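Structure in, sequence out. Go:
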């Protein structure tokens, strides 16, 4: 009862819920970069929204499934093939022992999630199983998967015969153009009056410096970056910092717990899962909103999703 990795791809890891309650120890959140796609994939196989699945980044990956099980695939993958036959995303798919599963490259988008009905064996740390690559913790021995790896299942899972398809209205639309809503950060007003207006003025391009820790936004440098060092303060996924270069830096799920650059904005919680689909060359437009409206948007989104997924949180 296992999954053999025939082609690992650029960066495939085991990801689920973020680590919670350990930031005072310097442990970042980690977890799935796109928690909504993870939740949708897990629901197709009868799992809760934050259970461990495979997160496949950018390039294609191939697996051999050595179990009778169900899978769900959600994300930017160009195609899903079982034994060289195309199958749709957002559907419960049946797998037999020895079946070959080919997950295509993400075009557009950046990540695809493969959920499996069996319980995936993953290292447990501080109550979590997600992979934190920078410290080599959790997941599959704390690292990205490599060709030749074998992922075992914890125990034989009771089979649930499901046949689910995500409603069209709830299927994310992946694109090279994104809109992220933001609220002002703690230091936004301390640099210059028009800083947030400038931040939201024109689209930014995702640069080559883009990974799970953070993403550099390329565009017209913002005024104020040249004198922007400050004592370290708490940062979170979705925080936008302003380094001396003037190019904003958007923090991702593996971001550090503190930083010494001004926190000029914060991506709202309802939009934070979109960060996981940003890839080099894509564009984002930042749009300012208020903390009060951000809370309303989050509650509205949860209400919409709960009609299909049941109780869910986005991180």
């Amino acid at each position: 009862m296992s999954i053999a990795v025939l082609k690992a791809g650029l960066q495939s890891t085991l990801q689920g819920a973020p680590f919670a309650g350990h930031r005072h120890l310097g442990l970042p959140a980690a977890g799935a970069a796109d928690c909504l796609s993870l939740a949708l994939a897990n629901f197709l196989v009868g799992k809760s929204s934050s259970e461990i699945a495979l997160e496949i980044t950018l390039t294609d990956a191939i697996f051999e499934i050595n179990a009778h099980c169900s899978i769900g695939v959600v994300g930017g993958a160009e195609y899903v093939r079982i034994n060289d036959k195309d199958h749709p995303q957002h559907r419960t798919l049946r797998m037999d022992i020895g079946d070959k599963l080919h997950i295509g490259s993400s075009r557009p988008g950046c990540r695809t999630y493969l959920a499996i009905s069996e319980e995936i064996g993953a290292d447990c740390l501080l109550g979590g199983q997600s992979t934190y690559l920078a410290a080599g913790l959790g997941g599959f021995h704390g690292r990205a998967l490599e060709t030749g790896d074998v992922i075992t299942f914890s125990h034989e899972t009771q089979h649930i015969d499901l046949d689910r398809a995500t409603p069209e209205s709830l299927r994310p639309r992946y694109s090279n153009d994104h809109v992220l809503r933001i609220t002002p950060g703690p230091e936004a007003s301390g640099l210059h009056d028009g800083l947030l207006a400038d931040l939201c003025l024109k689209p930014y391009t995702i640069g080559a410096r883009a990974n799970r820790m953070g993403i550099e936004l390329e565009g017209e440098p913002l005024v104020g970056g040249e004198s922007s060092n400050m004592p370290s303060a708490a940062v979170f996924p979705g925080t936008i910092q302003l380094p001396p270069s003037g190019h904003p830096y958007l923090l991702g799920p593996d971001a550090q717990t503190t930083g010494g650059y001004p926190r000029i904005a914060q991506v709202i919680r309802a939009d934070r899962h979109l960060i996981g689909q940003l890839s080099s060359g894509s564009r984002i437009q930042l749009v300012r909103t208020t903390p009060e409206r951000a809370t309303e948007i989050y509650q509205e989104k949860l209400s919409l999703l709960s009609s299909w997924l049941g109780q869910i949180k986005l991180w």
